[in-house]
Amino acid sequence: MARLVVLGGGVSGHTAATFAAKWLGSAHEVVVVTPNAKWNWIPSNIWVGVGQMSKEEVTFDLAPVYAKAGITYKQAKALSLNPEGNETSDKPFVTVEFTETGKAGTTENIEYDYIINATGPKLNFGATPGLGEGSNLGEFTVSVCTADHAVHAAEELEKCIQTMKKGERQKFLIGTGHGMCTCQGAAFEYIFNIEHELNKAGVRDMADIKWISNESFLGDFGVGGLHMKTMGYAVSSKIFAESLFTERGVDWIIGAHVNKVEKGKAHYELLDGSYGEEEFDFSMLIPPFAGVGLKAYAKDGSDITATVFAPNGFMKVDANYAAGAYENWKATDWPKTYQNPTYSNMFACGIAFAPPHPISKPMSSPNGTPINPTPPRTGMPSGIIGKAVAHSICDKILKGENAPLHEASMAHMGAACVASAGKGLFNGTAAAMTIYPVVPDFDKYPGTGRDTDYTFGEIGLAGHWIKHILHHLFIWKAKLKAGWTLIPE
Amino acid sequence: MVREIIKYPTPPSVQYATDVRVFNENIFSLIDDLKETIQANALKGLAAFQIGSYYNVVVIKQEDGSFLELINPRLLSTEGKITTVETTAYFPGLSAEVQRHDKISVIYQDRNAQQHSLKAEGDLSVLLQRKIDYTFGSSFLHKLSKEEKAKFEKKLEFGADVAISEVCPTRFKRDYLTKLSNILLTILGFILVASLFISNEQTLATLWDSQLTISYVALVTNVIYFFYAQYEGRGFTSCSSCQIGNIIGTVVISLTKLSLIMILSYFLVNPA
Lengths: 489, 272
Fold this sequence. Notes:
The structure holds 2 protein chains of 2 kinds. By secondary structure, chain A is an alpha/beta fold.
């Protein structure tokens, strides 16, 4: 009987664990270690953040779902890996610390045959002074990264709406809280949902809404922008985004590294080396991501964290981490199997794997501050990668150690993104975008590196309906209800 | 080498606008061509896009006659708004009023891939904004107000779509049909409310008859919308398949409203 341990129960980890449990059956064991008691459909947090959904609508209890699937569930956070075992045993194990009430603080060593690291990111609020401490949100801004953060954000937004109703203007600043952030898409959705809600509340004319981000042009989204083909040539998403921002009366600051946040004020450095500050009454700034801080130890107890993990804390996989400068980047730098190069029974998926380099053009200010989006790993690629990794491990267990690994390179997969720009059955809008491949392949597609025949973008009501349907569809899938395997990632 | 400047109605570029990654002889030769083309045509500047190259390269002729080479330029920060009358080599002899930023900050790379920044205002600011737009696949047509764009399009022999096709637009001609349908529904609703204050059966019968006629017009408007919208949508290849969803959604919403009003009217307005 083999044991697969999955660290993390987010989109990628949950997909990997549930498919592995289905494919392996009861002959083998799947263990999920996640510090959270609830599963959260993170894309819908932006609707919680504007008071249009409750926390309960975007979360559900994991324990009954895992019980139904025959998965052993441990509500705990992983602390360290011993891929070679320790001095008394050759069996690899992971050390976890329980977070559930009653067992909180106690630790356990869980032995494994295979392990998937799908821990997701640490929300590194502490990287920007004033944005927070460590992974905890500070007091000056709000966040929509977790369901609880989003509930808090909705409460603060409501206070601002009430202030505006009393005749006092309010300034909104939404975007990224550091020069090395990803997830511009979530901030993009949030700013337009706020704009939509302020309109509904009749106070739009009392609000100054501003976007701040580390993108070097509006519409970069961490993927170097999209190019939509028309009339035989391609127009950048910059033009699309600028039209939308102008149409909705939203101003923008780009190429910005927010370096300090105070009460009602954000300080930033721009790509041209200049400094500025922006006042706000309400601000949602996405924090940068880092690895969750897992340690790794060799059999003799020596620290091998640097061997297993990249400096940013994400796990090394079969990527080319020595690609060097921008002009040398290739699609083949990106991982295909997500297997750790040192320990073949360790895999990483979702946000937890270390990407070889950004997708957007790397840039820095004359002061040497790097200011460019880091690569996004949204729900669709995370789910696909999680499923591919689970498939590889199940094949190894069921067909033998030499079974070929399944591949899911982001340079070979497309992604569809539906970005909400306002919730409402009849007046909602969302931008539906497709991109292929996610990581540009400059050899295969000279120019933009992408196949523009498969790159589309449109904004409208149908996009909102799709977004809403996807919300229910993915929660249905995650709860493993009838037909869940038929719903794509 | 002096290159041919692509002019209306030829679509402005062969392929895609993209950042320069490798700084080599090809790029230096492209920059030299841009300079010679600027000199030969007495222009103030050119984007590589305008001579059929997909690289993000802009060359500006400065007042002292020297050239400013900008590779991978980005418009970083802006200040103030001004409206200027602009011309472009792509539309010879034509001009339009465009709203631009008065002061801008731009970052760019030189031939050695070194990053620089510059601040510009007035004419230089406008020129740079126009050229940087080209590097992202757009011309000043995208920046025109609705009225100015309509005025400008009348000057174009083959229309604007030949020259600069839209990114999937947020406004379509079909929206006029939606507007008409909404006006008709509003009238129907108004008659419904008004009937609550009328007891004369003959007047009610007249109102019901007019409601029936208006509802038929609304129904036909929706049918026309459904087919015309799809015909119009075919012209925008950048629009996703969501477009058909939007069309169906709009028709379903409109017909639901129409049905509700007519069902209520059947009981409240119709005296029969």
